[in-house]
TrEMBL record:
One of its GO terms (cellular component) is plasma membrane. It is found in: Cell membrane. The lineage of its organism: Bacteria, Pseudomonadati, Pseudomonadota, Gammaproteobacteria, Thiotrichales. This is MFS transporter. Keywords: Cell membrane, Membrane, Transmembrane, Transmembrane helix. It is a multi-pass membrane protein. Residues 4-405 form the Major facilitator superfamily (MFS) profile domain. The chain crosses the membrane at residues 41-61, 73-96, 102-123, 130-151, 157-181, 210-232, 244-265, 277-294, 300-324, 336-359, 379-399. It comes from Cysteiniphilum litorale. GO terms for molecular function: transmembrane transporter activity.
Length: 416
């Protein structure tokens, strides 16, 4: 058991490292704009470049894990992430910084699924649901460590040296994996890729697949836009609080989703009404972010509560994976989950640049040292509010839950 836990921790540390890389631009927005000589729109493009390869590699990553040794598959993407991290820290301009983010996204696409693959190798199937929940919490923890704890490092060493430190952690992890990550080559498939393409086409033809994907995309968008990039400067400028306080407030979105994911999952299982829980998540997000953007708030405590609620509401995207699997054939469930995950992660690629564009165009006067005023950030956050609202409308009126054999399908999924 000790060896199994050790192997799981090694794989989970890759996810931890990847999430820290993913969200790190959010803690250094002003530094990046100043060093790379870009405005906030191009900052969004730079950060969002990560999600190009991250999105495109979601389904191929699963196919690769099915066909090759998990040990080798994990180590190569980790190396690519490390290279991307070092390149980002050295990048003299926007173009190289964006390329570095593309490298990071490519490697990171293998992290989450890699943890689950390792878990399937070393743990009994009856622990898999628990392991998946722990993995989701570790991802949120990695994101938190890519934000608040980096403030003193950036203050003392600068953002470039901080990226070198983060990347060095990944390099140490790679060396440890090389010596200690030993996994059996079991569960490898020789199934032709063409059958996977046919499964993908079957999933894509289902209208409910698209409705659920839209919901999942819109409910992850606040994490990609607010928690990962623009949230800290928005809170700092709009609510007139110190940078460290703003970072603490926004970090509660990650705490919210870390707690909300297993909590709402338990609620959905207990009540057996997954759609009601999906509606609840979207409505909570709409109300919480509505208060943040549309009402005057002077209390840090209230902001913490509202950002926590807004983050917890995003747990709805995690529950959407269960629903999309129910709405597709049992033999296509893995492909359906991969399709849904693509919809989730593409939100960063679409909305990080778009919200940056809205913020830039809302600025009435010229920026000073790449600083945007609170009103401009507020206009960008209205896009996020509409995301929550549209997700609420979609789940209430457009998303359906199959009533026949749904529970049997879930049982079959757990047994397979």
């Amino acid at each position: 058991m000790f060896k199994s836990v050790l192997l799981f921790i090694l794989a989970a540390l890759f996810l931890f490292f990847e999430m820290a890389l993913q969200v790190s631009p959010g803690i250094m927005t002003e530094n990046l704009m100043s060093s790379l000589h870009i405005d906030i729109f191009w900052l969004g493009v730079t950060s969002g470049a990560y999600f190009i390869t991250y999105t495109l590699m979601q389904i191929p990553a699963g196919l690769i894990y099915d066909r090759f040794s998990a040990r080798n598959v994990i180590m190569l993407p980790l190396l690519i992430c490390i290279i991307g991290g070092f390149l980002f820290g050295l990048a003299p301009n926007f173009y190289l910084a964006a390329c570095a983010r593309i490298f990071m996204g490519f490697g990171s696409a293998f992290a989450f699924i890699g943890v689950l693959v390792v878990a399937s190798h070393v743990f009994s199937k009856r622990y898999f649901t628990l392991i998946a929940g722990i993995t989701q919490m570790l991802a949120a923890l990695g994101a938190m460590c890519g934000a608040l704890p980096l403030i003193p490092l950036i203050d003392h060493f600068g953002w470039r040296a901080t990226m070198m430190i983060i990347s060095s952690f990944g390099l140490i992890l790679l060396i440890i994996m090389f010596f200690y990550l030993k996994l059996p080559n079991k569960h490898l498939t020789t199934k032709p890729v063409t059958s996977s393409w046919l499964a993908f086409k079957s999933v894509a033809r289902q209208s409910q697949t698209w409705m659920i994907a839209i919901y999942a995309c819109l409910l992850w968008m606040p994490m990609a836009v607010v928690a990962s990039l623009y949230g800290i400067p928005f809170v700092e400028q709009y609510f007139n609080v110190p940078f460290s306080v703003a970072a603490t407030i926004v970090t509660f979105m990650w705490i919210g989703i870390a707690i909300g994911s297993p909590l709402f999952g338990f609620l959905a299982d207990k009540t057996e009404h997954i759609k009601r829980v999906l509606v609840l998540c979207a409505v909570i997000g709409t109300v919480a972010f509505g208060f943040i953007t549309l009402t005057p708030i002077n209390s840090v405590t209230i902001l913490v509560i509202l950002f926590f609620a807004a983050g917890a509401a995003c747990a709805g995207q995690a529950l959407s994976f269960s629903l999309v699997s129910r709405n597709n054939k049992l033999e296509h469930r893995a492909t359906a989950i991969g399709f849904n995950n693509m919809a989730v992660v593409i939100s960063g690629f679409i909305f990080q640049p778009f919200v940056g564009y809205v913020i830039r165009e809302s600025q009435s006067q010229l920026t000073t040292n790449y600083l945007y005023n609170g009103s401009s950030y507020h206009n960008g956050m209205i896009v996020v509010l509409f995301g929550y609202l549209i997700a609420s409308i979609a789940v209430i009126f457009l998303i359906k839950v199959p009533h026949s054999n749904s529970s049997n399908n879930d049982i079959a999924m757990l047994k397979s």
